[in-house]
Amino acid sequence: MGRKYRLFVSLFFISLFPISCGRGGSPGENIAVVNDTPISLSEFQKEVSILSKRNPAFKATPQTLEEQLNTIIDKKLLLQEAMKKGVAEDERFVQTIKSFWEQTLIKELLELKAREWADRLFVTEEEINRQYQRMQRIPFVRLVRTGDKKQAGEIKGKMLKGVRVKGEEGFGPLFVEDVRSDALLHAFDMAAGEAEIYEDNGGYVVLHVIKTKMSGIPPLKEVYNRIKTSLLEQKKQNVMEEWLKEIKRGARIQIDSRILKEAANGQ
Hints:
By secondary structure, the protein is of the alpha+beta class. It contains nine helices and six strands, in the order αββααααβαβαββαα. The strands form two sheets. A four-stranded antiparallel beta sheet has the order 4-3-6-5.
């Protein structure tokens, strides 16, 4: 009993000191060995540290530390059995690991870029006030896209006369916080009955506001922080998209249209 208790106490202090004081035994020491696979002191300390951060209620006691050590031992045993069974060579396993690795790598990259952009992105009072004005309006619109400027002018004239135009789309009610199209954003700055032409993605968009409603949004001071946060997130998203476009422009990308077409047709 005394020997087992001493093990508990050893585990307790081995784990406790690195977490709270940054001290302890040599990280190269092994706290256990499982079928010739060592569990290093640093590995054990790291696992306990992660557990304590994930679970604020976790208390480092002789019992919980032994339980954590046994959890690590069980994991080592399962990994050894998986290797014996050749699970690591299974194609499904390889693809799962590859997918997880890719997703994690992309996530880390995006978080790195987000931290870089955070130092130079900000929202002005003018932008907040403009967004608030837009949030007060709920427009209903007609929209037509064309690649010809002259034709856009003709379409605008027809829209103002109430004539339906081939290829027109209807949108509404529109809420500015849900709109991601630059063309549709203009609708929040237009009066009911107004029609305008805007350049968009190398072409032209003809926008006609049929009617607008008031949203009944609370006073600015009550939604100020929400608007500021939303605009900042939009700026991050815009910078991210521009950054990705820049990378794509500098990349060598080859697409086999024949294979793509066959895939689309289920061949």
